[in-house]
Amino acid sequence: MTHWQRNTCVRFRPRMQHDFDYVFFQRGRTCCSFVGRTGNGKQTLSVGPGCDMFGIVLHEIGHLIGFWHEHSRPDRDEFVDILYENVKDGERHNFEKLWKTQINSLGQRYDYMSIMHYGSRYFTKNGRETLSPRQNNVMIGQRTALSQMDIVQANLLYKCHRVTDCGGTIFANSGNFTSPNYPNELPSNIGCAWIVTSEEGNTLTLNVTDMDLQGADEDGECRNEYIEIRDGMGELAPLIGRFCGNDTPTSIASSGRSLWLQLVSRGPPAPPVDGTTHYSVSRGFLVNFEPGGVCERTLTETSGRIKSPSNIETSLQGIDCAWQIVVPEGYYVALTIEDVQLPGYDRSDQCHLHFVEVQDGNSTDSTTINRLCHSSQGVGLISSGSQLRIILKSSPSLQHASFSASYTAIDIDECMSDNGGCQEACLNLDGGYACGCSYGYEIAPDGTSCVDIDECLTSDNNGGCSHLCVNTEGGYHCDCPQGFTLAHNKSTCYDNNECAEVDLIQCEHRCLNTVGGYRCSCHAGKFFTDNNECAEVDLIQCEHRCLNTVGGYRCSCHAGYVLAMDGKRCEKIPGCGGNLTDLEASFKSPELPVENPYDLDCIWEIIVEEDLQLSLRIALDPWEDNDVCREYVTLRQGSSPDSRELRLCGTGDVPDMYRTHSNVVTVHFRSAPPHMGGFTVEYFTTEKKHPCGGLVTGGKTILQSPGFPDHYPNRVDCVWRIVNRRGRHVRLRFRAFEVENQEDCTFDYLAIMETSRQSHRLIGRFCGSKLPPTIVTSEGDELWVKFQSDGTVQRRGFSALVEVE
User: Fold this and answer.
1) Domains in the chain: how many in total?
2) What does 476-503 look like in DSSP terms, one character per residue?
3) Residue of 763, 758, 708, 706 lying closest to 731 (CA atoms)
4) Which residues of the sequence carry a binding annotation for Zn(2+) (predicted)?
């Protein structure tokens, strides 16, 4: 606080009993502050762990007094690049760009050195840059002190009248200032800036009454020593002119209430051609300023105040003022006329002589919204577009006339009228709007209509499908050809082993599984004579699937359906399968018609959050135990086709509790006629535990990633220490390996390191699906195996055999 007070006119004092609004500094969990005064009483500035340092607190106080982040400026894309791919998840909001209606830099240039600027690696998720300056050799994110531009903006924001020998902020209607050391020798290698601001409603006239600076170059340009004047508060304001030499410029008038003057002196000029070293000494300049005489202004800020000049009451020519308000397209102007004083003229027949008129546009021919001919207060008006014109007129006989008003730009909500012309969603934006579409659709070239996205064509990988990609209205899904089944991930097809379905396949001798099907074969000395009727697609009328049999064929249905009595159509069975995502629930087998002569398959998929694991309690009731297992319930944990599976054929097979280490369980119920079997399942969840790592001292041990062969969880960090106490050989044999692939293995990886008293050696860091060296041999004191995963992609992990010989 002392640093802010020393450099600006902002002052802090302890809260008094009568103060409603105040700031409370607290040691919280985060580093944060509201921007500016909220007006709701107590507002908190939180100083969290690691934030109680000078520069960080200086930054947070900057928010408190009204500063946004420098890299949030509307013009920031000209100066920095935001590398969103390196930003931590959930932290993108810290890099949002604000609109001109939200942030006002008071005409000052972009400031890399601002205390409000982030550093280049703030909120990085991988150690790489999140903010990159577009200008070379600049530093960002300093937390040492307020920059010169921070001080200038704070002084302008709080109307601080602070003037030094070399620049400052001046709030006055008239006065003067000089260059450093005037009228004596002007110091070299300096740069000073003065910002002069008059009362609201006034303009300024600036007179350079004396100027003694180095002259222009041979090409007529002022480069080495000059003054530069701009029509506004800073370097971004319109340039009026650059002046040097001894000829003073003519009077300079502002269009608004501020003028900016900068002095640049880079030192003595180059020596004359004749070799002499004599040159004249510059004395600098003397400037005075006074209220402007022109009662006409154009206002382009998104909000502001208008006030009639304070010196017009003595005018002998009367008053004839005009203010033109111009805000960005997509906004309208909301004007509040706070006070109009036209004393002594309340007669309507004098309205052509003394009035305040508001016009809806930018010319004298624009439509009149209102004309006030007498003293008034609190009149509100709204334009139909982005421009509004205000005229104040009175005759010379009217004394002490005055006028004050305020205005602000209000965003036009284009979506309120006919949904903005959008077919689906209309999103109102600051200064405009945009049409949007539901998931699976995109905006058509006309910018308003929605068309379906063909995900199967627009993606580079067939929509992620291993076999068939089927586009649907507003989406797509993966499908499999006959002989394959879609895996739990809904994108991969794996081959069915039809030969395992003994009650469906009727090969007399042998059944040979093939990719996408099967075939029968005969013992030696026999030959096969059956035709494959399922190949005759024009003759077979199976609604779902056709299964070839010896001497014929038969139809079958997808899970959740059963063959109708005609043996061809498939009828859906209510309650036969589904997806469950609740943390705990129960379900039971459906009721089936006992007269139906066909088999039925029901599949339930239980999927809960990744950090949970499932446990199931199963009861077979009623159930008739059978040796051939024609009716059964299978339980498979995990999402891969080769995950562990338990088949229940009778009540003796049912465990007290089926506990898993997975958040995914598939329950498959096969019912055979006369469909007498039934069951109920209850499941619940517990938080996953991922025990991994530890000490290995001898013999043979299996090392596996948590959950193997199912996918390993997020954010695990396992370290196994394999100790070789007697100088033996340590062998590490990899049997399976599948880890997220990345070029330098920084996301998920397995690292192997050999250590001894004398040295440490990194054997390698591995990721992807390629096996590390099948056998890793070590004679060191210890072999360290480290497995680490981040918070995104998951794979099956690894399995390795350790032998300490």
Assistant:
1) 8
2) EEEE--TTEEE-TTSS-EEE--GGG-TT
3) 763
4) 59, 63, 69
Is a pLDDT exceeding 50 seen at residue 314? no
Mean pLDDT of the chain: 85
CA distances from 544 to 369, 417, 540 (A): 72, 50, 11
DSSP designation for 127: S
Task: Write down the catalytic residue from 60, 290, 357, 740.
Answer: 60
Location of structure tokens 């020519």: 317
In terms of domains, do 33 and 134 share one? Answer: yes
735 and 588 in a common domain: no
In-domain check, residue 561: no
Q: What is the CATH number of the domain that holds 657?
A: 2.60.120.290
**Residues comprising the binding site?**
59, 63, 69
Cβ-in-10-Å burial (0-12, 13-18, 19+) of 715 comes to exposed
Residue in the block written with tokens 């800036």: 193
Percent of the chain at pLDDT exceeding 70: 89
Of the listed ranges 229-233, 340-344, 466-470, 719-723, the least confidently predicted one is 340-344
Q: Between the CA of residue 537 and those of 76, 469, 563, what are the distances in Å?
A: 64, 22, 19
Q: Rg of the Cα trace of the chain?
A: 41
Cα-flanking dihedrals φ and ψ of residue 62, to 5°?
Answer: -60, -45
Q: How many CB atoms lie within 10 A of CB 662?
A: 23
Question: Which amino acid, 71?
Answer: H
Show the tokens assigned to 406.
Answer: 């305020």
In terms of domains, do 478 and 443 share one? Answer: no
802: three-class secondary structure by DSSP: strand
Which residues are annotated as part of the binding site for Zn(2+)?
59, 63, 69
DSSP structural state of residue 107: T
Find all residues with CB under 8 Å of 126, minimum gap 6, and list them: 86, 746
What pairing do the DSSP bridges indicate for beta strands 167-171 and 190-197?
A: parallel
Nearest in space to 488 (alpha carbons), one of 664, 738, 670: 664
Averaged pLDDT for residues 762-784: 81
Cβ neighbours of residue 539 closer than 8 Å, sequence gap 6 or more? 533
Tell whether 320 and 397 lie within a shared domain: yes
183: cis peptide before it, omega within 30°?
yes
CATH code of the domain covering residue 133: 3.40.390.10
Q: 681 and 596 in one domain? A: yes
Rounded CA gap, 470 and 481, in Å?
A: 12
- Residues 740, 670 share a domain: no
Condensed to tens digits (0 to 9), the pLDDT of residues 221-258 reads: 999 999 999 999 999 998 999 999 999 998 888 878 89
Coil/strand/helix, residue 51: coil
- What type of residue is 584? E
Whole-model pTM?
Answer: 0.46
Quote the CA–CA distance of 390 and 419 in Å, as a whole number.
33
Strand partners, 684: 615
The pLDDT, as a whole number, for residue 153 is 95
Same domain, 187 and 233: yes
Dist CA 429 CA 420 (whole Å): 12
Q: What is the pLDDT of residues 19-70, one digit of tens each?
A: 999 999 988 888 899 999 988 899 999 998 888 889 999 999 999 999 999 9
Which positions ≥6 away from 64 have C-beta within 8 Å?
23, 33, 34, 35, 36, 45
Question: Are 172 and 30 within 8 A, CB to CB?
Answer: no
599 secondary structure, DSSP code: -
Would you state the structure tokens that stand for residue 172, as one six-digit string?
């006055």
What SS3 class is residue 339? strand
Least confident window among 101-115, 363-377, 450-464: 450-464
* pLDDT for the residue numbered 490: 83
Residue 757: beta bridge partners? none
Give the pLDDT confidence score for residue 293 in this predicted structure. Answer: 58
Please confirm, yes or no, whether 235 is among the known catalytic residues.
Answer: no
